Fold this protein.
Amino acid sequence: MLRKLMRKKTADIQSLQERIHTVKQRQMPNHVAIIMDGNGRWAKQRKMPRIAGHHEGMKTVRQVTNFANDLGVKALTLYAFSTENWKRPKIEIDFLMNLPGEFLNTYLPELMEKGIKVEMIGNMDALPAHTKTAITKAMEITKNNTGLILNFAMNYGSRLELVHVMKELAREVESGNMEIEAIDENVINSKLMTAHLPEPDLLIRTSGEVRLSNFMLWQLAYAEFIFTEVLWPDYNEECFLQAIEDFQNRDRRFGSLEGDRKG
Ligand code: FPP
């Protein structure tokens, strides 16, 4: 019985390795964006407090980050706290604000070893000082790393981001520094918080919810969307691999009739 189980496990690992080998031969998404949802329900199913789900979700962040880096994904943006999440109970907000510090204190050596670079989008000013310090320190320490960009969306809201872009452009036009006619998609891209990142080509949302929740509304214009029932704390390498395989089997046409089968 044990031997049979061991044989099955070895076969599963082999087939995972083969699948990884295959996806690496095909076109990898440059930038994957994830709405990590379902932490609360995961905890509720286990009669645990919601914060236990967020803590477990942090471990998934580590696993998916390392795997995305191994696969050669260039950027991974994780929606960790939205501008709307301030409406949650204080105890939950406080816990969520502690997670970047805990994550970065625990895993910074590993991030350095793997060459992962930490970045952030969102309004940092409104974050508690300890959260700001943890993120700023990690960004500084990892700034020369050339592997995956691990981009946390913290206190991020896409509409607010777009309001800032519009105000900035209006100011430039008003001051005579820019002609209205000069405003095009590239100019708007250059003003977004994601200006230096490749456009996300894959969006994943966990937990069965099928909406964008104010996440990168402009940037996701041509992304492929994958919604899975799996709750974020249960999400793992195999789920991520499956998402990449699904992405690679999509026919991306960007509005034209020509298919773009990758690989
Ligand atoms: C949504 O699930 C999840 C969040 C608002 C927080 C996501 C944060 C993490 C996964 C941890 C982040 C880790 C670091 C290192 C910053 P939910 O609570 O809305 O779940 P529910 O819909 O089941 O209630």
